[in-house]
Amino acid sequence: MSSLTYINEQGAGQKYSDLCHFSQAVVLGNIVKCSGQGGWEPSGALNAEDIPSQVELAFQNVDRVLQASGLRVWEDVY
Length: 78
Prior knowledge:
The chain is of the alpha+beta class. The chain has a single domain (5-76), classed as CATH 3.30.1330.40. The protein is 35% helix and 14% strand. The chain is built from two helices and three strands. It has helices at 12-20, 51-68; strands spanning 5-7, 25-28, 31-34. Strands 1-2-3 form a three-stranded antiparallel β-sheet, covered by helices on one side. A hairpin with a 2-residue loop joins strand 2 and strand 3 (31-34).
């Protein structure tokens, strides 16, 4: 059985992993599976009143997790 590698981007990703006991991504062989991403800033701040900014930040957070996983970002997503 292969071992799993858990990935969290530095900053808010690692902070929330430590607080809530989840990882943002897991490496399964040559596949990276990402968890749902929040619309928080790298510091962890969240503006609950600004939904459009949350959506943009969520995509930026996906970018950071993909990079932390060693991927070429969106070119490796299917």
